[in-house]
Amino acid sequence: MSQSVPPILSIHPSRALMDETFKVLVENLPPGSPVTIRSLHHSEDHDHWEAYGYYISDHTGKVSVSDDFSFGGTYTGKEPMGLLWSMRPVPGSRKGLRLRKTDVCSPMLINISVYSGHGGFREQAPLASALSERWYMAPGVRRVEIRERGVRGTLFIPPGPGPFPGLLDMWGGGGGLLEYRAALLASHGYVSLALQYFAPGELESAELEFHYFETAFNIIRDHPQVMPDRVGIFGLSLGSAVTMYLVTESAVIKPRCCVCVSSNICYPQGKTLAGYHEVMEQNFDKVRVDENNHQIWRDMALAIMNGLSKTVDVGKINCPVLLVNGSDDQNWPVMESAEVMAQMMRDAGKEHLLTRLMYPDAGHLIEPPFSPHFRATNFIVSSTKEKVILLWGGQTKPHSDAQEDSWRKILSFLQQHLCCSPSPKAKL
Q: What angle do CA 359, 294, 234 make, to 5 degrees?
């Protein structure tokens, strides 16, 4: 492709929050030229992730990713954000990778380039490139490490004097401290505590008493910049089981509302997470593997759920609850769990408190929008400390659509139940 004026690639906005859309535009191409537009990210784990689409420039020599169709690549069709949600490890990468931001104080840097032709772009020099900064923390959001009353986590506080609504943010059975969702929630005006409740692969540190979660909730509620009567809980997977247990069994905390992603209403009798792992060990013989030797935990989870003594009595719930589930979840029987929960709440006259979102062909790991889809990733089993690859499920395009749609509805739900009045979304 030779011409006197070189192509120009631009990204608008070049700096944005992770849940904001951008526009990628290539200009000064010869009309009718086949080109490949590629995104490339070097992760904090030193792996390379990419996405790309095949385009043909219009009669003016332009390609707009927001408006034009991709004819192939990691995504097809008119997909404005396909360069993000269809990212995958580059060929030859390690197996079972998952892309997650650990340093939320720095942006995720995405290099977007345009190449001549369709295919073979990895051996070419780009015709033009531009850099996109994707942030979880909006300007002015404060990050505060919490080591208080035995609780471990990170508190994110929106800019301004407040007071703000609050959220306790809990991830799942992989353990560790994950901050990026809480940082993004703070960017939307919520004081959010990303809670660490055990370390990955360490069953001993999972022997946490029920009191630990009550204390974490109270740390948010008692913060001087938080409205004490407007604190909710946001849980995913195991975090949703803890959420359900807190909402039904605690006499101390009364959340204003709850969001449960990939919901789980099973929680063993007793008041420690160690019991949860014991129940899993007792049913581990029901774990299956697929043709790729990826572990499928769904049948094990079904066996656990069918033990009624280990099911939370959700009929005692007295606050609005939003369930977000994918029908292709291969890790947990979330659809069956949601049906059981709906019936129990119906029997208790509480069905009006339950809102259900179900997404066909979405998997277990429903994250903030434009996050890549991970059908199977590495996982450390707490009881044995064995490293396996878990099958989470989901198909890339419908799963990504579910992430985008559910995030909008989650924010709307939180605004409805936690906010006194509409607050503008933070901008970079």
A: 40
On whether the CB atoms of residues 207 and 272 are closer than 8 A, the answer is yes
Answer yes or no: 364 catalytic: yes
Nearest to 96, CA basis, from 267, 301, 263, 292: 292
- Among 37, 251, 45, which Cα is nearest to 128's? 37
pLDDT digits 0-9 by tens, 339-365: 999 999 999 999 999 999 999 999 999
Name 27's bridge partners.
8
Rg of the chain over CA atoms, in angstroms?
A: 23
Q: Tell me the sheet residues that pair with 285.
A: none
Rounded distance between C-alpha atoms, residue 160 and residue 176, angstroms:
29
Q: SS3 for 138?
A: coil
- Whether 389 and 376 have beta carbons less than 8 Å apart is answered as yes
C-alpha span between 392 and 395 (Å, rounded) = 10
User: How far apart are the C-alpha atoms of 313 and 244, rounded to whole Å?
Assistant: 9
**Catalytic residue (choose from 41, 188, 364, 399):** 364
Q: Of 58, 10, 84, which is closest to residue 75 (Cα–Cα)?
A: 84
Instruction: Take residue 43 and report the two structure tokens written for it.
Output: 């992760």
Q: pLDDT tens digit string along 109-168? A: 999 999 999 989 999 999 999 999 999 999 999 999 999 999 999 999 999 998 999 999
Active site residue 290: no
Task: Give 406's contacts (C-beta < 8 A, 6+ positions apart).
Answer: 261, 324, 357, 359, 366
Domains, the chain, in order of start with CATH, read: 8-135 (2.60.40.2240), 142-418 (3.40.50.1820)
Is 237 considered catalytic here? yes
Contact 384, 400 (CB under 8 A): no
Instruction: Write the burial class of residue 64 (CB in 10 Å: 0-12 exposed, 13-18 middle, 19+ buried).
Output: middle
For residue 388, the cross-strand partners are 379
| Confidence at 376, pLDDT banded by 50, 70, 90 | very high
Query: Contact at 8 Å (CB) between 312 and 244?
Result: yes
Phi (first) and psi of residue 374, to 5 degrees: -120, 105
Q: If DSSP codes are grouped into helix, strand and coil, which group holds residue 22?
A: coil
> Which residues, including other chains, have CB under 8 Å from residue 427's CB and lie 6 or more apart?
17, 138
- Give the H or E element holding residue 39: strand 34-42
Dist CA 90 CA 74 (whole Å): 11
Q: Which of 70, 329, 371, 382 is catalytic?
A: 329
**Catalytic residue, candidates 113, 187, 192, 237:** 237
